[in-house]
Structure prediction request, 526 residues.
Amino acid sequence: MDRRLFPILFAVLAAGCGKGNFSAKANAAAGSTLRIAIHTQPTTLDPALVQDVDTGDLVQNIYEGLVAYGEDNKIKPMLAESWTVEDGGKTYVFKIRKAKFHNGREITAGDFKWTFERNADPKLRSPITLGYLGDIVGIKERGEGKATEISGVTAPDDRTLRITLDKPRPYFLGKLTYPCGFVLAKEVVGNTEINSAKTSVGTGPFTLAEYVPAQQVDLKSFPDYWDGAPKIDRYVRPVIQDAQARLGKFRNGELDMLTLERQDLAAVDSDAKLKPQLRAQPRPAIYYLGMNQGAYAPFKDKRVRRAFAMAVDRKKIADDLVGLPLAGGLVPVGVPGSREDLAPIPYDPEGARALIAQAGFPGGKGLPALTIHYREGRPDSQLLAVAAAQDLEKNIGLKVQPRSMEWRSFLEARNQEKLPFYGASWYGDYLDPQNFLSFLLRTGASENHDGYSNPAFDELVDQGDTMEEGPDRLRIYQTAEDILLDDTARIPVYMGRDMVLVSPRLQGLRYNLLGTMPMSKVTLAP
Prediction:
């Protein structure tokens, strides 16, 4: 697929040190130990429950699926060494390579069948499996508890896996790269959430040696990894919530890689040591304001949603507060079908006041009290929420209270459609516009947490979802995106891009447009 990267100038803030929280074991083996901080505690260790980028980056080093995206942003074989597509695009036949679980047992095609059925089990309450694997025949029946097996997944022998879809889906292989498609060892995992090293048994380049909640994740090299054992002995992920502490540890050589907060970039030219270590990592991501029509009745009125968008100075937030490109649409640059020339909804306080009055709330009177929720521990999220709240009070007369939430609690509340108004982001999971359109906002979609529904949009994306790849399909999606923007289904604010510090001793780091790839090939210089 076509990829476009961006030339970027960056800045980095020189910061002081923070208190250490590494295990003695990790410090003792620093020469052969890769150390990368996690900003907040992982939301889960279970691939079937992963909903966020940070946790996904962690578990992809422990578990693997049939396929993955390579450095060229194209699908490549992983545990499937090859595959064919039959029945007009509805059936995929995978040949499973010889590889071992961390407990030493060789994987089989039946392990994938069991994993998919386990992940779709309604008792597990996976918030993602039916969204990512829902195109498979029979998985909805399994998810509703009406079947014990998934009829569309069969394993004729130990090396052959057949998956049958309801319709041809050109993006299906991309969906299989998401963690709920990663294979699990049934003899140790079971049907409850994976939450310890004992049950975290995958096929990836690293095994989970130890997990201390809110403190550290400790991974160990897997010597029998099918693609060759990693060249480092350990991979340690300390949980460090304070941005200044993280940057201080990187400057002191206690971390080998660090994703920076935007406000830490202003003083890059003043630090000659850090500046050469800074890298740009473009990501297909949109930061947005979500409006839940079921939890806040005024959002059912398109005029209210539009007024909110016109009342928030999104260009100021993008340019002055976070320093990232303003988003005009909902499909980010780099994803096929994205359009850089889309004009953003204008900042128009007077027009916002007029729309709110037309909707029956002149000067904001009569609008119920409203809270805007955001993820704790992420300054960018706080900046977005606070700026939006201030603009809404100033421009339409509604007092909005910003409130942070612990990350897993935020996700659970959003999944249950309990957040009326919130600041969030959507990072692409696979490189197809479907992941930003029908996957998120089609009527009844499992990731549609805002109660949005428009039959015209549904009809268009239903066409695009089953068409062959090509310009006609992309034009269908662009028309569907225009409907979302006209409806103000959600408010796009800015596009994502990671700013990463990488120590000179860390070599062999691999990227693609979706982020950092597993650390199986990295080396550490003395």
Summary: The first strand starts at residue 33 and ends at 35.
